[in-house]
Amino acid sequence: MNEITLIIPAKDEPNALPLVLNEIKKKKLPVKVLIVMRKEDIKTLEATNGYDCEVLFQSKKGYGNAIVEGINNVKTKYSCIFYADGSTDPIYIELMLEKLQNQNLDLIFGSRYEKNAYSFDDDFITRLGNHGFTFLGNFFMNLKITDLLFTYIFAKTECLKSMELSCDDYCLCIEIPYKAKLAKFNYATIPCIERKRFADKKKVKAFSDGLKILLYFFSKYLNTINR
Q1: Predicted TM-score of the model (pTM)
Q2: What 3-state class would DSSP assign to 50?
């Protein structure tokens, strides 16, 4: 597991991030931790003091940009996209690694909507949107994923880098499985329980971000049928 880097995009998480880093420390997870954030986010930066982690300042804004720049700076064999708010439980990291190696996979997608999985951070609107986008992805693109918008993803770093990801916003959650499908990578899902965020405020704007994702989805679908 010392070949794993946790990529943690962080924006205005001065209270949640230390709890996440402390949990990783207490569990003695043999992973490298890469925090990707804006340089101007002083309070979140100060929250990393005293923890064994690397901080990378992103060159542009956006959740997707933080992950993309994080991926491009990872030097370990495996990468895992992890949340700064505490909703992703680290107990699944070892399970993801085991499944990826045993089944000779390239990527593992965490899912909140399989048997023995659940989300404590969902409300009616986000649950409806998540199921809707997952249906669209499976129906139009044959992605065979049970939770399209959950970016708790474990993968071979070389595969993520080869995708040449470019989305700066939440559309990245569509871009990763879409490009994994195009590249014919071997991927699967694993049931996960998404916890309530530890602190601070939720960043996703359900309607405006959902509209951006929807427009991006259909632009990729049109690209698919015109190939």
Answers
A1: 0.94
A2: coil
